[in-house]
Design a protein that fits this description.
This protein has 632 residues and is α+β, with helices and mostly antiparallel strands. Helix content is 36%, strand content 20%. The strands form five sheets. Strands 1, 2, 3, 4, 5, 6, 7 and 11 form an eight-stranded mixed sheet that branches. It has a five-stranded mixed sheet with strand order 14-20-19-16-21. Strands 13-15-18-17 form a four-stranded antiparallel sheet, with no helix packed on it. α7 crosses α8.
Length: 632
């Protein structure tokens, strides 16, 4: 049964009660979290967002979220709102219409959430609490601080409820409350976005993937959140409680090293690799070199692992040949550095491209920016680099590349010049809010096959907040939606997604195809002249011509020497053209679509299969020709 993944994000930043007006708006953070959770390449969750809802709507959405689930399901529930403590010490989550003196009727008790978690059949449930905590006292009270309530105690049980288990991660352990009269004090709690920002950045950039295995697990995410929040606010300490078997994965990582499931070498090749015959082992290295350049990445990865084993364990000259074969899969970024020159602050400089050379295995890598002003966008055989010219000064950064064999760096520089003061009567442009953009990472894949063309997808969501930047091409600006006075209807991930597929660049050259075809044609011609030479030699040996006793003269009279010469020349030229075609294909992969690439490889292989044996036989005949002429 296929695993199902669902997330419910509850974000409340508008309250009818005057005492709850001081909360920082969590809506943008909630939308950013929805973006990474529903991204198929990161969380792959079906996400639902509920904003500024009344208490009865929140209850229905929460209960519906936990209902009708299966044991293989993974659920994530995120609260970004006020957390309230009643006079009896109970924990509540504030809704839009919550009243401080009527929490049971107008807020969501933590016990209600815990009951829903206990009854669900989902195997894994993760609860994220990013709440700004305030005390629940009568209006007009003058309480500034008086005791805490432990948040995790509200969700702790003796054993895991329902399915296989659940986990709670909260922005802080204890609920600090502080009121001065009817208003929430300015410093009552840490800013809630610190916690959610840490979650979003850890998932989006993959930095939460501590072991770089390509998967972000629950414990890894908590460790990252803890360190990030403590760095930003030492007074805030995230906490967790876990009642769950194992360490479930929450998201895929774009930061992890490239890992490919290798296809083992066939039995005949494995036998050749371990053969006692040195020539056989050298032949095995040659075959592994060919497989290393294969379009099928698992096949190429299997060849890479076998060559590395030979490099470590075989004799010197065989190990050297294996080491030389492996050099072709090292990262080859071109150019190795980018200089955007001088740009005006607030402008949008043109993107620059970095292409990756070598066979498909060499072009399969992870590209990660080290600075938030650097944006990386994938291309079929490389990536685009864009800069955000928001901060004046000379900026330097790197794009880190991680491939299967090694790592490389593309250095980026740009000088952002401050904006020139405008004239008094000139219109003043609206100030741009700086974006807290996370460092980005993309996976660069070689072009897909014709049956499954590669698409670079992005997701756009129509929200009432400014769009959060993503590592894919930016969406067209959308008309802002006004904040409604009542609860917004939740939107499913399907309704919020809009996939786009940029056009693949058309073929720009047929040079390699023509070269390979010409080589095959010459190989066929060489084979024809070899046949003519053999036929002439047979006739010369069988026939007795008058006044011609010398075998050399008889061979010449049947055109054997001419046929051999033409055969040798055309075979050599055919092999040279084959090499030129393959080199052109590797050096300029962008010029050839998938169909042209396959055609070149097929023609070049056919030319090699035909020309090599013809050349060998022609050389043997050429060596035998003077011997026969002189001694027979």
């Amino acid at each position: 049964m296929r695993e199902s993944r669902h997330a419910l994000i509850i974000a409340n930043d508008h309250y009818d009660d005057e005492g709850l007006k001081k909360l920082k708006a969590p809506a943008q953070d909630a939308e950013a979290l929805a973006g990474v959770l529903e991204d198929p390449q990161i969380g792959d969750f079906d996400v639902e967002v509920v904003r500024n809802a009344q208490a009865d709507v929140m209850r229905r959405r929460i209960q519906h979220f936990f209902s009708d689930r299966r044991r293989d399901d993974t659920l994530v529930l995120h609260f970004s709102c006020h957390g309230l403590k009643s006079e009896s010490g109970e924990l509540y989550f504030a809704a839009r219409d919550s009243e401080m003196r009527m929490l049971d009727a107008t807020a969501i008790p933590s016990q209600f959430v815990r009951t829903c978690m206990s009854r669900t059949r989902a195997g894994r449930t993760v609860l994220l609490l990013d709440c700004c905590y305030g005390g629940a006292f009568s209006r007009g009270a003058s309480v500034r601080a008086a005791g805490d309530v432990n948040v995790l105690e509200s969700f702790r049980t003796d054993k895991a409820p329902g399915g296989r288990g659940w986990a709670v991660i909260t922005a802080a352990d204890s609920m600090e409350y502080a009121f001065e009269g009817p208003e929430l004090a300015e410093k009552s709690s840490p800013r809630p976005s610190v916690f959610t920002h840490a979650v979003v950045e850890g998932l989006r950039t993959g930095e939460a993937d501590r072991d770089e295995d390509g998967e972000i697990r629950l414990n890894e995410l908590y460790d990252y959140i803890y360190e990030r929040v403590q760095d930003e606010n030492p007074n805030q300490t995230p906490k967790r409680t876990v009642e769950m078997q194992g360490d479930p994965w929450l998201a895929h990582s774009r930061r992890g090293r490239i890992k490919i499931a290798a296809v083992p070498s066939p039995p005949f090749l494995q036998s050749a690799i371990t053969s006692e015959n040195v020539v056989t082992r050298l032949g095995a290295v040659t075959e592994l070199d060919r497989r290393l350049r294969d379009d099928d990445l698992p096949v190429a990865e299997g060849a890479r692992q076998a060559l590395e084993e030979i490099t470590r364990n075989d004799l010197g000259h065989i190990a050297d040949q294996a080491h030389a074969a492996l050099q072709v899969i090292h990262l080859q970024p071109s150019p190795a550095s980018l200089d955007f020159g001088k740009v005006r602050q607030g402008s949008t400089p043109a993107e620059k491209s970095v292409m990756l050379g070598g066979p498909p295995l060499a072009r399969h890598c992870v590209a990660q920016s080290t600075q938030r002003w650097l944006r990386v966008e994938p291309l079929p055989n490389g990536f685009n680099v864009a800069v955000e010219a928001d901060t004046p000064g000379h900026l330097t950064g790197d794009i880190e590349l991680k491939g299967v064999a090694d790592e490389s760096v593309v250095h980026v520089e740009v000088t952002v010049e401050p904006q020139v003061a405008t004239a008094p009567d000139a219109p003043v442009p609206a100030p741009q809010e700086p974006e807290d953009r996370p460092k980005e990472a993309v996976v660069v894949h070689p072009p897909a096959s014709e049956d499954q063309p590669e698409t670079l997808t992005r997701e756009t969501r129509v929200t009432s907040e400014p769009p959060v930047s993503e590592s894919w091409p930016a969406a067209e600006p959308l008309e802002p939606q006004p904040v409604a006075e009542h609860a917004e209807e939740p939107r499913s991930a399907t309704e919020r997604r809009e996939a786009t597929s940029p056009q693949q660049p058309p073929a720009k050259s047929v040079r390699a195809v023509v070269t390979a075809a010409t080589g095959l044609a010459l190989a066929a011609i060489s084979a024809l002249y070899l046949i003519l030479a053999v036929v002439g030699a047979i006739k010369a040996a069988e026939e007795q011509q008058p006044n011609v006793d010398d075998i050399g003269d008889r061979l010449s009279s049947h055109g054997v020497s001419t046929s051999l010469t033409v055969c040798l020349v055309t075979a050599v030229i055919a092999l040279l053209l084959r090499v030129l075609a393959r080199h052109d294909l590797s050096a300029h992969p962008r010029l050839y679509p998938r169909q042209a690439t396959n055609a070149v490889k097929s023609l070049a292989s056919s030319a090699k299969v035909l020309a090599v044996p013809v050349l060998v036989l022609a050389i043997l005949m050429a060596i035998a020709y003077p011997v026969i002429s002189n001694y027979l």
